[in-house]
Design brief:
The complex is a heterodimer of chains A (115) and B (215).
Chain A lengths: L5 E3 L5 E3 L13 E4 L18 E13 L1 H4 L8 E10 H4 L10 E7 L3 E3 L1
Antiparallel strand pairs in A: 1-2, 3-4, 3-7, 4-5, 5-6
Chain B lengths: L22 H15 L5 H12 L3 H13 L1 H9 L1 H7 L9 E6 L4 E6 L8 H4 L4 H4 L1 H9 L1 H7 L9 E6 L4 E6 L11 H7 L2 H5 L6 H4 L4
Parallel strand pairs in B: 1-4, 2-3
Classes of the chains: A mainly beta (115), B alpha/beta (215).
Chain lengths: 115, 215
C-alpha cells in the first residue's frame, strides 16, 4: 500500500482509502521540513525549517492537529504525525559534539516534503 | 519542611501578594473568568484539575522505572507503548498525550526538552522544574547538549550517542535511565528511591547516592 491509495485485501477485492487515511511517508524515507513562515501557532521549531531528516516511525494513533485546533478550525481533526531523526551536524553547522549525536522530533505531515 | 520549627512569639510579615499582576496574569484571569461566565467550565472543574496536577510527582515515574528494571516483560511493554504501560500501574493520561519511553544504554544517552514551550510528561512526573521552562535550557539542550549535560555534572563519552528528543505537540517523553551497578540486592521500592526527576529528564544518571539506599 505504498502511496496509500489502494490496499489489496484479497484476490478479487480492493479497498480504496480516503484521502489522508493512510500516512504519505514511511519509516526509512528521507524528508525535508518545509520552509514556510505562516502567521499563527505552529509546532515546528524554526531551527528545523529546510532541514533534511529520516522518518523513524509513524506515531499511532493519528494526533489532534493543534496547529488548526488552536484557532478553532476543524477542531478535533487528526493528522498523521511522524517521529523524525536528524543528525546534529545537519541542524547545526560546526556542531561541537560527537558526529553520532542526533535529534528526534515529532512533526505533522503538513510540514513534510519528499526529497 | 520550613525553617519555622519554633514558637511564634515574634511577628511575621503578613503573607500576601502585593506586586501588581503582570500582563499575562491579567490575561489569564480575564480569559478564565470569561470562560466560567460563558459556562464552558466551572470553578469546581478548575479546582479538580489543580488536584489532578498536584497528585502527579516524580515518585510515579520512579515507580515506572523501578518496575522496568525488575520486570523485563513490563520493560518491553513500556518501550513499545509508554502510555499503556503506565496505565497498567494506574497512572492515567488525562491530557490526551502519548508517551515514548527512551531507554539509555551503553551506546545511547537520551535527553528531553521542549524548545517551543514546556511540554513535559506531567501525568507521570508532575510539574516541570523551572529551569526546564527557561530559554537557556530550551535553546542549548538541542544545540549544545554535551555542554548542558556537563553543567549538570554529567559527562558522556564521545563514543556514546547523545539523542535529544524535542517535544512539540502530542507526544511526551520519559527517559528510562540505566540501572546502576551494585543494586542487585535492592527491592523495587529501594530502586525507585534512587530514581530522580532529573534522571528521567536525562540530565543526570542514576547513582547510588541519589536517593540513599537503606539496607
Amino acid at each position: 500500500m505504498r502511496g496509500g491509495a489502494v490496499m489489496s485485501v484479497g484476490p478479487s477485492s480492493t479497498i480504496v482509502l480516503a484521502l489522508d487515511e493512510a500516512p504519505v511517508f514511511h519509516p526509512g524515507e528521507t524528508v525535508r521540513i518545509s520552509t514556510r513562515h505562516p502567521v499563527g501557532h505552529y509546532r515546528v521549531p524554526f531551527y528545523l525549517r529546510g532541514k533534511v531528516g529520516v522518518v523513524e516511525s509513524v506515531i499511532e494513533p493519528k494526533a489532534v492537529d493543534n496547529e488548526e485546533e488552536s484557532f478553532g478550525r476543524n477542531a478535533g481533526s487528526r493528522r498523521h504525525y511522524y517521529r523524525l531523526a536528524f543528525p546534529m551536524t545537519e541542524l547545526w553547522p560546526g556542531y561541537a559534539g560527537s558526529p553520532r549525536d542526533g535529534l528526534r522530533i515529532e512533526v505533522f505531515e503538513t510540514w513534510l516534503e519528499r526529497v | 519542611m520550613t525553617d519555622h520549627d519554633h514558637d511564634h512569639d515574634h511577628r511575621h510579615a503578613e503573607v500576601s501578594e502585593d506586586a501588581p499582576p503582570g500582563y499575562y496574569e491579567i490575561m489569564e484571569t480575564a480569559i478564565r473568568e470569561l470562560l466560567v461566565e460563558k459556562g464552558m467550565f466551572g470553578a469546581d472543574e478548575i479546582r479538580r484539575q489543580i488536584e489532578v496536577l498536584d497528585s502527579r510527582t516524580p515518585a510515579l515515574g520512579a515507580q515506572v522505572v523501578a518496575r522496568a528494571w525488575v520486570d523485563p516483560a513490563f520493560r518491553a511493554r513500556l518501550l513499545a507503548n509508554g502510555r499503556a504501560a503506565c496505565e497498567e500501574l494506574g497512572i492515567s493520561f488525562y491530557d490526551d498525550t502519548q508517551l515514548i519511553v527512551l531507554e539509555n544504554t551503553e551506546t545511547v544517552h537520551n535527553l528531553i526538552v521542549c524548545t517551543l514551550c514546556s511540554c513535559y510528561p506531567r501525568p507521570v512526573l508532575g510539574l516541570p522544574p523551572d529551569w526546564y521552562k527557561l530559554k537557556p535550557y530550551r535553546a542549548r539542550a538541542v544545540s549544545e547538549p554535551r555542554a548542558v549535560l556537563a553543567e549538570f555534572g554529567t559527562r558522556i563519552p564521545d563514543d556514546v550517542e547523545i539523542r535529544v528528543s524535542d517535544s512539540t505537540a502530542m507526544v511526551r517523553y520519559l527517559v528510562l535511565p540505566r540501572r546502576p551497578a551494585g543494586t542487585d540486592h535492592c527491592s523495587e521500592a529501594q530502586l525507585a528511591a534512587l530514581v530522580t526527576r532529573d534522571a528521567m529528564i536525562g540530565v543526570v544518571s542514576v547513582t547510588l547516592d541519589a536517593g540513599g539506599v537503606r539496607q
